[in-house]
Design a protein that fits this description.
- The chain contains 24 helices and 2 strands.
- It is mainly alpha-helical and 516 residues long.
- It has 2 domains: 258 residues, MetI-like fold, CATH 1.10.3720; 217 residues, MetI-like (MetI-like fold, Orthogonal Bundle), CATH 1.10.3720.10.
- β1 and β2 form a beta hairpin.
- α3 crosses α11 and α15 runs parallel beside α23.
- The longest helix is centred in the middle third of the chain and has 35 residues.
Protein backbone atom coordinates (compact mmCIF):
# COMPACT_ATOMS: atom_id res chain seq x y z
CA UNK A 1 0.00 0.00 0.00
CA UNK A 2 3.00 2.29 0.23
CA UNK A 3 2.77 2.97 -3.49
CA UNK A 4 -0.51 4.77 -2.89
CA UNK A 5 0.85 7.18 -0.36
CA UNK A 6 1.46 10.81 -1.11
CA UNK A 7 2.28 13.91 0.82
CA UNK A 8 -0.92 15.65 1.80
CA UNK A 9 -1.47 19.38 1.83
CA UNK A 10 -0.49 19.61 5.49
CA UNK A 11 2.61 17.43 5.09
CA UNK A 12 1.05 14.17 6.32
CA UNK A 13 0.76 11.02 4.24
CA UNK A 14 -2.70 10.18 2.95
CA UNK A 15 -4.07 7.21 1.06
CA UNK A 16 -6.91 7.22 -1.46
CA UNK A 17 -10.22 5.83 -0.22
CA UNK A 18 -10.69 2.15 -1.01
CA UNK A 19 -14.04 2.92 -2.62
CA UNK A 20 -12.47 5.44 -5.01
CA UNK A 21 -9.75 2.99 -5.98
CA UNK A 22 -12.39 0.31 -6.58
CA UNK A 23 -14.52 2.58 -8.79
CA UNK A 24 -11.48 3.75 -10.76
CA UNK A 25 -10.34 0.15 -11.21
CA UNK A 26 -13.74 -0.85 -12.56
CA UNK A 27 -13.68 2.07 -15.01
CA UNK A 28 -10.15 1.15 -16.12
CA UNK A 29 -11.15 -2.49 -16.56
CA UNK A 30 -14.05 -1.40 -18.76
CA UNK A 31 -11.68 0.67 -20.90
CA UNK A 32 -9.36 -2.34 -21.28
CA UNK A 33 -12.05 -4.75 -22.54
CA UNK A 34 -11.55 -4.08 -26.28
CA UNK A 35 -7.77 -4.50 -26.21
CA UNK A 36 -7.81 -7.54 -23.89
CA UNK A 37 -10.44 -9.33 -25.92
CA UNK A 38 -8.72 -8.49 -29.19
CA UNK A 39 -5.48 -10.03 -27.90
CA UNK A 40 -7.38 -13.14 -26.75
CA UNK A 41 -9.24 -13.40 -30.06
CA UNK A 42 -6.13 -12.99 -32.21
CA UNK A 43 -4.08 -15.30 -30.00
CA UNK A 44 -6.75 -17.97 -30.23
CA UNK A 45 -6.15 -18.35 -33.94
CA UNK A 46 -2.69 -19.82 -33.30
CA UNK A 47 0.78 -18.57 -34.10
CA UNK A 48 0.84 -20.26 -37.53
CA UNK A 49 -2.32 -18.46 -38.59
CA UNK A 50 -0.99 -15.11 -37.39
CA UNK A 51 2.30 -15.59 -39.27
CA UNK A 52 0.44 -16.68 -42.39
CA UNK A 53 -1.77 -13.59 -42.27
CA UNK A 54 1.10 -11.18 -41.66
CA UNK A 55 3.23 -12.71 -44.43
CA UNK A 56 0.69 -12.00 -47.15
CA UNK A 57 1.79 -9.46 -49.71
CA UNK A 58 -1.40 -7.48 -49.37
CA UNK A 59 -0.84 -7.08 -45.61
CA UNK A 60 2.68 -5.80 -46.28
CA UNK A 61 1.25 -3.25 -48.69
CA UNK A 62 -1.32 -2.14 -46.11
CA UNK A 63 1.38 -1.80 -43.46
CA UNK A 64 3.79 0.16 -45.67
CA UNK A 65 1.01 2.48 -46.83
CA UNK A 66 -0.17 3.04 -43.25
CA UNK A 67 3.28 3.82 -41.90
CA UNK A 68 4.23 5.96 -44.89
CA UNK A 69 1.06 8.03 -44.63
CA UNK A 70 1.44 8.44 -40.85
CA UNK A 71 5.11 9.47 -41.10
CA UNK A 72 4.53 11.91 -43.95
CA UNK A 73 1.51 13.48 -42.28
CA UNK A 74 3.22 13.77 -38.90
CA UNK A 75 6.32 15.40 -40.37
CA UNK A 76 4.41 17.88 -42.52
CA UNK A 77 2.00 18.75 -39.67
CA UNK A 78 4.95 19.24 -37.30
CA UNK A 79 6.75 21.59 -39.70
CA UNK A 80 3.68 23.53 -40.78
CA UNK A 81 2.14 23.66 -37.30
CA UNK A 82 5.35 24.95 -35.73
CA UNK A 83 5.77 27.54 -38.48
CA UNK A 84 2.19 28.78 -37.98
CA UNK A 85 2.67 28.98 -34.22
CA UNK A 86 5.87 30.99 -34.64
CA UNK A 87 4.23 33.38 -37.09
CA UNK A 88 1.25 34.00 -34.80
CA UNK A 89 3.25 34.46 -31.61
CA UNK A 90 6.58 35.98 -32.67
CA UNK A 91 5.51 38.24 -35.56
CA UNK A 92 3.14 41.17 -35.31
CA UNK A 93 0.20 40.23 -37.51
CA UNK A 94 -3.13 42.05 -37.80
CA UNK A 95 -5.97 40.48 -35.78
CA UNK A 96 -3.82 37.74 -34.20
CA UNK A 97 -6.73 36.18 -32.26
CA UNK A 98 -8.75 35.84 -35.45
CA UNK A 99 -5.86 34.15 -37.23
CA UNK A 100 -5.41 31.74 -34.32
CA UNK A 101 -9.10 30.88 -34.40
CA UNK A 102 -8.91 30.31 -38.16
CA UNK A 103 -5.91 28.03 -37.71
CA UNK A 104 -7.95 25.90 -35.27
CA UNK A 105 -10.99 25.57 -37.56
CA UNK A 106 -9.91 22.27 -39.21
CA UNK A 107 -10.46 20.55 -35.84
CA UNK A 108 -14.21 20.95 -36.30
CA UNK A 109 -14.30 19.23 -39.70
CA UNK A 110 -13.97 15.41 -39.87
CA UNK A 111 -11.36 14.24 -42.33
CA UNK A 112 -13.88 12.22 -44.33
CA UNK A 113 -16.07 15.31 -44.68
CA UNK A 114 -13.09 17.26 -45.99
CA UNK A 115 -12.48 14.43 -48.46
CA UNK A 116 -16.13 14.54 -49.51
CA UNK A 117 -15.93 18.29 -50.12
CA UNK A 118 -12.95 17.86 -52.43
CA UNK A 119 -14.44 14.87 -54.25
CA UNK A 120 -17.54 16.92 -55.04
CA UNK A 121 -15.31 19.28 -57.03
CA UNK A 122 -12.71 16.77 -58.27
CA UNK A 123 -14.23 13.25 -58.34
CA UNK A 124 -11.02 11.73 -59.73
CA UNK A 125 -8.94 12.45 -56.61
CA UNK A 126 -7.33 9.30 -55.25
CA UNK A 127 -4.12 7.87 -53.86
CA UNK A 128 -1.42 8.91 -51.44
CA UNK A 129 -0.93 12.59 -52.25
CA UNK A 130 -4.56 13.75 -51.70
CA UNK A 131 -4.79 11.61 -48.56
CA UNK A 132 -1.55 13.09 -47.22
CA UNK A 133 -2.43 16.71 -48.02
CA UNK A 134 -5.93 16.51 -46.54
CA UNK A 135 -4.78 14.65 -43.44
CA UNK A 136 -2.11 17.28 -42.92
CA UNK A 137 -4.65 20.08 -43.28
CA UNK A 138 -7.07 18.66 -40.68
CA UNK A 139 -4.38 17.66 -38.16
CA UNK A 140 -2.09 20.73 -38.23
CA UNK A 141 -3.97 22.40 -35.31
CA UNK A 142 -2.94 19.52 -33.03
CA UNK A 143 0.59 20.94 -33.33
CA UNK A 144 -0.19 24.64 -33.75
CA UNK A 145 -2.22 25.12 -30.56
CA UNK A 146 0.14 23.52 -28.00
CA UNK A 147 3.26 24.97 -29.66
CA UNK A 148 1.71 28.47 -29.69
CA UNK A 149 0.90 28.10 -25.99
CA UNK A 150 4.46 26.93 -25.28
CA UNK A 151 5.96 29.82 -27.24
CA UNK A 152 4.00 32.32 -25.14
CA UNK A 153 5.55 30.96 -21.96
CA UNK A 154 9.03 30.29 -23.38
CA UNK A 155 11.81 32.60 -22.27
CA UNK A 156 13.41 34.78 -24.91
CA UNK A 157 16.66 35.31 -23.02
CA UNK A 158 18.51 32.38 -24.59
CA UNK A 159 17.41 33.30 -28.09
CA UNK A 160 18.71 36.82 -27.54
CA UNK A 161 22.06 35.44 -26.39
CA UNK A 162 22.26 33.22 -29.49
CA UNK A 163 21.55 36.20 -31.74
CA UNK A 164 24.29 38.20 -30.00
CA UNK A 165 26.74 35.40 -30.78
CA UNK A 166 26.13 35.71 -34.49
CA UNK A 167 23.30 33.24 -35.04
CA UNK A 168 20.60 34.15 -37.54
CA UNK A 169 16.91 34.20 -36.59
CA UNK A 170 16.33 30.60 -37.64
CA UNK A 171 19.53 29.29 -36.10
CA UNK A 172 18.87 31.12 -32.82
CA UNK A 173 15.35 29.68 -32.72
CA UNK A 174 16.54 26.07 -33.07
CA UNK A 175 19.40 26.50 -30.60
CA UNK A 176 17.53 28.38 -27.87
CA UNK A 177 13.75 28.20 -28.33
CA UNK A 178 13.14 24.80 -29.90
CA UNK A 179 14.31 22.83 -26.82
CA UNK A 180 11.74 24.73 -24.73
CA UNK A 181 8.79 24.00 -27.02
CA UNK A 182 9.90 20.51 -28.08
CA UNK A 183 7.70 18.70 -25.51
CA UNK A 184 4.61 20.51 -26.79
CA UNK A 185 5.56 19.84 -30.41
CA UNK A 186 6.16 16.15 -29.73
CA UNK A 187 2.87 15.84 -27.85
CA UNK A 188 1.01 17.40 -30.77
CA UNK A 189 2.85 15.16 -33.22
CA UNK A 190 1.73 12.15 -31.20
CA UNK A 191 -1.91 13.11 -31.73
CA UNK A 192 -1.27 13.58 -35.46
CA UNK A 193 0.43 10.18 -35.74
CA UNK A 194 -2.36 8.37 -33.88
CA UNK A 195 -4.99 10.16 -35.96
CA UNK A 196 -3.21 9.16 -39.18
CA UNK A 197 -2.81 5.53 -38.13
CA UNK A 198 -6.50 5.22 -37.26
CA UNK A 199 -7.84 7.13 -40.28
CA UNK A 200 -10.45 5.19 -42.23
CA UNK A 201 -13.06 7.38 -43.91
CA UNK A 202 -10.72 9.67 -45.84
CA UNK A 203 -8.35 6.95 -47.11
CA UNK A 204 -11.32 4.83 -48.17
CA UNK A 205 -12.81 7.74 -50.09
CA UNK A 206 -9.44 8.36 -51.72
CA UNK A 207 -9.09 4.63 -52.45
CA UNK A 208 -5.73 4.43 -50.72
CA UNK A 209 -5.43 0.99 -49.04
CA UNK A 210 -4.19 1.09 -45.44
CA UNK A 211 -4.59 -1.25 -42.48
CA UNK A 212 -7.95 0.24 -41.56
CA UNK A 213 -9.09 -0.46 -45.12
CA UNK A 214 -7.83 -4.05 -44.80
CA UNK A 215 -9.54 -4.57 -41.43
CA UNK A 216 -12.86 -3.35 -42.75
CA UNK A 217 -12.53 -5.44 -45.91
CA UNK A 218 -11.63 -8.59 -43.98
CA UNK A 219 -14.60 -8.11 -41.68
CA UNK A 220 -17.31 -6.93 -44.09
CA UNK A 221 -16.43 -8.80 -47.28
CA UNK A 222 -15.72 -12.34 -46.06
CA UNK A 223 -16.32 -12.00 -42.30
CA UNK A 224 -12.81 -13.37 -41.80
CA UNK A 225 -12.61 -12.79 -38.07
CA UNK A 226 -9.12 -14.24 -37.68
CA UNK A 227 -7.57 -12.03 -40.36
CA UNK A 228 -9.47 -8.97 -39.18
CA UNK A 229 -8.37 -9.52 -35.56
CA UNK A 230 -4.73 -10.03 -36.58
CA UNK A 231 -4.67 -6.86 -38.69
CA UNK A 232 -6.36 -4.93 -35.89
CA UNK A 233 -3.77 -6.14 -33.39
CA UNK A 234 -0.99 -5.11 -35.80
CA UNK A 235 -2.48 -1.61 -35.97
CA UNK A 236 -2.67 -1.43 -32.17
CA UNK A 237 1.00 -2.44 -31.92
CA UNK A 238 1.92 0.40 -34.28
CA UNK A 239 -0.10 2.87 -32.19
CA UNK A 240 1.46 1.68 -28.93
CA UNK A 241 4.95 1.96 -30.44
CA UNK A 242 4.15 5.57 -31.38
CA UNK A 243 2.97 6.31 -27.83
CA UNK A 244 6.08 4.68 -26.33
CA UNK A 245 8.32 6.61 -28.73
CA UNK A 246 6.63 9.89 -27.80
CA UNK A 247 7.17 9.27 -24.09
CA UNK A 248 10.81 8.44 -24.69
CA UNK A 249 11.45 11.48 -26.86
CA UNK A 250 9.70 13.97 -24.58
CA UNK A 251 12.11 15.60 -22.16
CA UNK A 252 10.86 18.40 -19.96
CA UNK A 253 13.39 21.14 -19.30
CA UNK A 254 13.80 22.63 -15.82
CA UNK A 255 11.57 25.62 -15.27
CA UNK A 256 13.06 29.05 -15.82
CA UNK A 257 11.87 32.57 -15.27
CA UNK A 258 10.34 33.48 -18.61
CA UNK A 259 10.75 36.84 -20.24
CA UNK A 260 7.96 37.34 -22.71
CA UNK A 261 9.05 37.88 -26.28
CA UNK A 262 7.04 40.60 -27.90
CA UNK A 263 5.92 40.03 -31.49
CA UNK A 264 8.22 41.98 -33.76
CA UNK A 265 7.00 43.96 -36.77
CA UNK A 266 8.10 42.99 -40.26
CA UNK A 267 7.70 44.50 -43.68
CA UNK A 268 4.37 44.36 -45.43
CA UNK A 269 5.78 42.26 -48.28
CA UNK A 270 7.17 39.67 -45.89
CA UNK A 271 3.89 39.63 -43.92
CA UNK A 272 1.85 39.07 -47.08
CA UNK A 273 4.12 36.16 -48.00
CA UNK A 274 3.78 34.53 -44.54
CA UNK A 275 0.02 34.79 -43.97
CA UNK A 276 -0.76 32.24 -46.73
CA UNK A 277 1.20 29.72 -44.63
CA UNK A 278 -1.26 30.30 -41.78
CA UNK A 279 -4.24 30.16 -44.13
CA UNK A 280 -3.19 27.00 -45.98
CA UNK A 281 -4.70 24.45 -43.59
CA UNK A 282 -8.06 26.25 -43.10
CA UNK A 283 -8.40 26.76 -46.86
CA UNK A 284 -7.57 23.15 -47.77
CA UNK A 285 -9.29 21.50 -44.82
CA UNK A 286 -12.31 23.75 -44.28
CA UNK A 287 -13.17 26.43 -46.81
CA UNK A 288 -12.71 24.46 -50.05
CA UNK A 289 -14.63 21.41 -48.73
CA UNK A 290 -17.43 23.61 -47.37
CA UNK A 291 -17.59 25.52 -50.64
CA UNK A 292 -17.96 22.27 -52.55
CA UNK A 293 -20.59 21.14 -50.06
CA UNK A 294 -22.50 24.41 -50.38
CA UNK A 295 -22.38 24.30 -54.18
CA UNK A 296 -23.82 20.81 -54.26
CA UNK A 297 -26.35 21.55 -51.54
CA UNK A 298 -28.06 24.46 -53.33
CA UNK A 299 -28.52 22.57 -56.58
CA UNK A 300 -32.15 22.01 -57.45
CA UNK A 301 -31.91 18.22 -57.82
CA UNK A 302 -30.30 17.96 -54.38
CA UNK A 303 -33.04 20.01 -52.74
CA UNK A 304 -35.77 17.96 -54.43
CA UNK A 305 -34.17 14.66 -53.35
CA UNK A 306 -33.90 15.50 -49.63
CA UNK A 307 -35.61 12.84 -47.54
CA UNK A 308 -36.66 15.02 -44.60
CA UNK A 309 -37.85 12.23 -42.26
CA UNK A 310 -34.66 10.24 -42.80
CA UNK A 311 -32.56 13.37 -42.36
CA UNK A 312 -34.28 14.21 -39.07
CA UNK A 313 -33.91 10.61 -37.91
CA UNK A 314 -30.16 10.80 -38.53
CA UNK A 315 -29.96 14.06 -36.59
CA UNK A 316 -31.87 12.50 -33.71
CA UNK A 317 -29.66 9.41 -33.69
CA UNK A 318 -26.51 11.55 -33.79
CA UNK A 319 -27.62 13.71 -30.88
CA UNK A 320 -28.91 10.73 -28.91
CA UNK A 321 -25.72 8.69 -29.05
CA UNK A 322 -23.59 11.80 -28.48
CA UNK A 323 -25.44 12.66 -25.27
CA UNK A 324 -25.40 9.04 -24.08
CA UNK A 325 -21.69 8.67 -24.83
CA UNK A 326 -20.91 11.93 -23.02
CA UNK A 327 -22.77 10.74 -19.92
CA UNK A 328 -21.21 7.27 -19.87
CA UNK A 329 -17.68 8.53 -20.61
CA UNK A 330 -18.01 11.16 -17.88
CA UNK A 331 -19.19 8.60 -15.31
CA UNK A 332 -16.29 6.27 -16.21
CA UNK A 333 -13.72 9.06 -16.28
CA UNK A 334 -14.76 10.76 -13.04
CA UNK A 335 -13.29 8.23 -10.54
CA UNK A 336 -10.07 7.93 -12.56
CA UNK A 337 -9.71 11.71 -12.80
CA UNK A 338 -10.49 12.17 -9.10
CA UNK A 339 -7.91 9.53 -8.14
CA UNK A 340 -5.18 10.91 -10.42
CA UNK A 341 -5.83 14.52 -9.38
CA UNK A 342 -5.22 13.93 -5.68
CA UNK A 343 -2.99 10.86 -5.27
CA UNK A 344 0.27 9.42 -6.54
CA UNK A 345 1.77 5.95 -6.72
CA UNK A 346 2.32 3.04 -9.09
CA UNK A 347 -1.24 1.75 -8.76
CA UNK A 348 -2.71 5.19 -9.44
CA UNK A 349 -0.43 5.60 -12.47
CA UNK A 350 -1.40 2.16 -13.79
CA UNK A 351 -5.13 2.86 -13.44
CA UNK A 352 -4.80 6.23 -15.15
CA UNK A 353 -2.70 4.75 -17.98
CA UNK A 354 -5.30 2.06 -18.66
CA UNK A 355 -7.98 4.74 -18.71
CA UNK A 356 -6.06 6.45 -21.50
CA UNK A 357 -5.97 3.26 -23.62
CA UNK A 358 -8.66 4.62 -25.93
CA UNK A 359 -6.17 7.29 -26.94
CA UNK A 360 -4.10 4.61 -28.72
CA UNK A 361 -6.95 2.42 -30.00
CA UNK A 362 -8.24 3.26 -33.49
CA UNK A 363 -12.01 3.41 -33.78
CA UNK A 364 -12.16 0.51 -36.19
CA UNK A 365 -10.18 -1.64 -33.74
CA UNK A 366 -12.49 -0.84 -30.84
CA UNK A 367 -15.51 -1.50 -33.03
CA UNK A 368 -14.19 -4.84 -34.28
CA UNK A 369 -13.11 -6.04 -30.84
CA UNK A 370 -16.52 -5.19 -29.36
CA UNK A 371 -18.21 -7.06 -32.21
CA UNK A 372 -16.22 -10.14 -31.18
CA UNK A 373 -16.84 -9.51 -27.48
CA UNK A 374 -20.58 -9.03 -27.87
CA UNK A 375 -21.02 -12.15 -30.01
CA UNK A 376 -19.00 -14.32 -27.63
CA UNK A 377 -19.93 -12.94 -24.20
CA UNK A 378 -23.21 -10.99 -24.45
CA UNK A 379 -24.86 -11.96 -27.74
CA UNK A 380 -28.11 -10.34 -26.64
CA UNK A 381 -26.39 -6.95 -26.85
CA UNK A 382 -24.88 -7.47 -30.31
CA UNK A 383 -25.80 -4.58 -32.64
CA UNK A 384 -27.41 -2.67 -29.80
CA UNK A 385 -27.11 0.95 -28.78
CA UNK A 386 -25.56 -0.21 -25.50
CA UNK A 387 -22.46 -1.62 -27.21
CA UNK A 388 -22.22 1.36 -29.56
CA UNK A 389 -22.31 3.89 -26.70
CA UNK A 390 -19.80 1.83 -24.73
CA UNK A 391 -17.43 1.92 -27.72
CA UNK A 392 -17.69 5.71 -27.83
CA UNK A 393 -17.03 5.90 -24.10
CA UNK A 394 -13.86 3.78 -24.41
CA UNK A 395 -12.60 5.76 -27.39
CA UNK A 396 -13.17 9.23 -26.00
CA UNK A 397 -12.88 8.75 -22.25
CA UNK A 398 -9.28 10.10 -22.37
CA UNK A 399 -10.66 13.48 -23.47
CA UNK A 400 -12.85 13.60 -20.37
CA UNK A 401 -10.12 12.33 -18.03
CA UNK A 402 -7.66 15.05 -19.08
CA UNK A 403 -9.97 18.02 -18.59
CA UNK A 404 -11.66 16.63 -15.47
CA UNK A 405 -8.35 15.81 -13.82
CA UNK A 406 -7.19 19.39 -14.37
CA UNK A 407 -10.43 20.80 -12.95
CA UNK A 408 -10.42 18.53 -9.91
CA UNK A 409 -6.75 19.22 -9.28
CA UNK A 410 -7.39 22.97 -9.20
CA UNK A 411 -9.67 22.64 -6.16
CA UNK A 412 -7.56 23.39 -3.02
CA UNK A 413 -7.55 20.39 -0.66
CA UNK A 414 -7.78 22.79 2.28
CA UNK A 415 -11.35 23.66 1.28
CA UNK A 416 -12.34 20.03 1.70
CA UNK A 417 -10.53 19.91 5.03
CA UNK A 418 -12.51 22.94 6.19
CA UNK A 419 -15.75 21.29 5.11
CA UNK A 420 -14.80 18.18 7.10
CA UNK A 421 -14.56 20.28 10.27
CA UNK A 422 -18.32 20.79 10.10
CA UNK A 423 -18.78 17.09 10.80
CA UNK A 424 -19.74 15.87 7.31
CA UNK A 425 -18.32 12.69 5.76
CA UNK A 426 -15.47 12.78 3.20
CA UNK A 427 -17.92 11.98 0.40
CA UNK A 428 -20.31 14.72 1.48
CA UNK A 429 -17.45 17.22 1.75
CA UNK A 430 -16.24 16.26 -1.72
CA UNK A 431 -19.75 16.62 -3.13
CA UNK A 432 -20.33 20.03 -1.52
CA UNK A 433 -16.94 21.56 -2.28
CA UNK A 434 -15.18 19.83 -5.16
CA UNK A 435 -18.10 19.07 -7.46
CA UNK A 436 -19.40 22.67 -7.78
CA UNK A 437 -15.91 24.07 -8.37
CA UNK A 438 -14.94 21.35 -10.86
CA UNK A 439 -18.29 21.29 -12.68
CA UNK A 440 -17.11 23.51 -15.59
CA UNK A 441 -14.22 21.11 -16.28
CA UNK A 442 -16.62 18.17 -16.15
CA UNK A 443 -18.86 19.96 -18.63
CA UNK A 444 -15.93 20.63 -20.96
CA UNK A 445 -14.98 16.96 -20.87
CA UNK A 446 -18.54 15.91 -21.68
CA UNK A 447 -18.73 18.36 -24.60
CA UNK A 448 -15.43 17.09 -26.00
CA UNK A 449 -16.77 13.53 -25.92
CA UNK A 450 -20.02 14.62 -27.57
CA UNK A 451 -18.22 16.38 -30.43
CA UNK A 452 -15.91 13.42 -31.04
CA UNK A 453 -18.89 11.05 -31.00
CA UNK A 454 -20.76 13.06 -33.63
CA UNK A 455 -17.78 12.83 -35.99
CA UNK A 456 -16.83 9.17 -35.32
CA UNK A 457 -17.26 6.85 -38.32
CA UNK A 458 -15.52 3.40 -38.35
CA UNK A 459 -16.75 2.11 -34.96
CA UNK A 460 -20.24 3.40 -35.80
CA UNK A 461 -20.26 1.51 -39.11
CA UNK A 462 -19.39 -1.75 -37.32
CA UNK A 463 -21.59 -1.43 -34.23
CA UNK A 464 -24.67 0.61 -35.09
CA UNK A 465 -27.97 -1.24 -34.70
CA UNK A 466 -29.76 -2.26 -37.89
CA UNK A 467 -31.94 0.56 -39.15
CA UNK A 468 -30.19 3.28 -37.15
CA UNK A 469 -27.88 5.68 -38.95
CA UNK A 470 -26.07 8.78 -37.74
CA UNK A 471 -25.24 11.75 -39.92
CA UNK A 472 -21.72 10.36 -40.34
CA UNK A 473 -22.87 6.95 -41.56
CA UNK A 474 -25.51 8.45 -43.87
CA UNK A 475 -22.84 10.68 -45.39
CA UNK A 476 -20.53 7.70 -45.76
CA UNK A 477 -23.15 5.40 -47.32
CA UNK A 478 -23.91 7.90 -50.05
CA UNK A 479 -20.36 9.02 -50.71
CA UNK A 480 -18.97 5.53 -51.29
CA UNK A 481 -21.43 5.07 -54.16
CA UNK A 482 -20.63 8.58 -55.48
CA UNK A 483 -24.07 9.99 -54.64
CA UNK A 484 -22.56 13.35 -53.74
CA UNK A 485 -25.81 15.27 -54.12
CA UNK A 486 -27.69 12.94 -51.75
CA UNK A 487 -24.84 13.16 -49.25
CA UNK A 488 -24.76 16.97 -49.15
CA UNK A 489 -27.65 17.54 -46.67
CA UNK A 490 -26.16 15.08 -44.18
CA UNK A 491 -22.73 16.69 -44.48
CA UNK A 492 -24.17 20.17 -43.96
CA UNK A 493 -26.13 19.16 -40.88
CA UNK A 494 -23.14 17.28 -39.44
CA UNK A 495 -21.10 20.49 -39.62
CA UNK A 496 -23.90 22.53 -38.03
CA UNK A 497 -24.66 20.03 -35.26
CA UNK A 498 -20.99 19.58 -34.33
CA UNK A 499 -20.40 23.33 -34.46
CA UNK A 500 -22.83 24.05 -31.61
CA UNK A 501 -20.85 22.34 -28.81
CA UNK A 502 -17.61 23.54 -30.42
CA UNK A 503 -18.85 27.15 -30.15
CA UNK A 504 -19.83 26.54 -26.53
CA UNK A 505 -16.33 25.23 -25.85
CA UNK A 506 -14.69 28.22 -27.48
CA UNK A 507 -16.42 30.41 -24.93
CA UNK A 508 -15.62 28.21 -21.93
CA UNK A 509 -11.83 28.10 -21.96
CA UNK A 510 -8.97 28.06 -24.39
CA UNK A 511 -7.69 24.61 -23.42
CA UNK A 512 -10.92 23.10 -24.67
CA UNK A 513 -9.98 24.05 -28.21
CA UNK A 514 -6.61 22.41 -27.75
CA UNK A 515 -8.31 19.17 -26.69
CA UNK A 516 -10.60 19.07 -29.73
Amino acid sequence: MTTLARSGPTGTDTRPPVGLVALASVAAAAAAIPLVYLVVRAGGTGLDSIIQTLSRGRVLEYSVNTLGLALATTFSALVLGTAIAVILTRIRVPFPRTWLLLSALPLAVPSYLAGYGWLVSIPTLSGFVPSWLLLTAVTVPYVTLPVAAALRSATGDLEGVARSLGRGPIGAFFVATWPQIRPAAIAGSLLVALYSLSEFGLVAMMRYPTLTWGINSAYSASFDRAQAATLALLLVVMALVVVAGERGARRQLPSTVARAVRPRPIGRGMLISLLPVVAAAPVVGVFVPLAGLGTRLVQADTLRAIDVPRLLAAVGATLGVAVAAAVVATLLALPIAALAARYRGRLVTAIESVGYLGHALPGIVVGLSLVFFALAVVPALYQSVVVLVFAYAVLFMPKAIGTMRAGLGDVPPRLIAVARTTGVSPLAAWWRVTVPLALPAVGVGALLVAIATMKELPATLLLRPTGINTLATELWNRTVVFEFGAAAPYAALLVLVAAVPAMILSGVRTTAKEEL
